[in-house]
Write a structure and sequence with these properties.
The structure is a single chain. By secondary structure, the chain is an alpha+beta fold. Helix content is 31%, strand content 35%. The radius of gyration is 16 Å and the shape is globular. The N terminus is likely disordered.
Amino acid sequence: MVLSTSAQLRVAVGKNRWICLKRPESVCIRAGSEDDLQPVYRLNQQAFEHGWSFEALYSALESGYDLIVCEQDGILIGYLLSLRVFDEVQIMQIAVADSWRRQGLAAAMSEYLLQCSGPVQQVTLEVRVSNRAARALYARLGFEEVGLRKKYYAPDAAGISEDALLMSKYLVS
């Protein structure tokens, strides 16, 4: 699939705005592009019980979502998908490959997003109530629990829906 011209321009702007951030262990965090969609899709399917389809990820990127990828030696090991609307950024997904979890990559991608988003007032996200590790990460990054979305996540195999905590970080402009 080829992104539309407007999406290619947004990706190109993102690449200029978000330079590659070198991390220890030869890990690179950078703006994602159309070329990253296949590995992002594969990681999405591994990381989430109800992952997005390739078409949904493609459509998100084409419609203006920002993609940050984390890679080592050219291999995708994590990504962050977000959407900026005016002065607010909504983190839609963060995924890290199993073998790279608990090594600070989600935090590094989140901090990268905060540094590179330009002037924003607020960053928000939803997280499963049961995901204690993610909730602790976001709390360390300065996010506060500001609400609850009842039965936000699709029902599991047993037919049980899970609530989501709404978390926000307010930034000084």
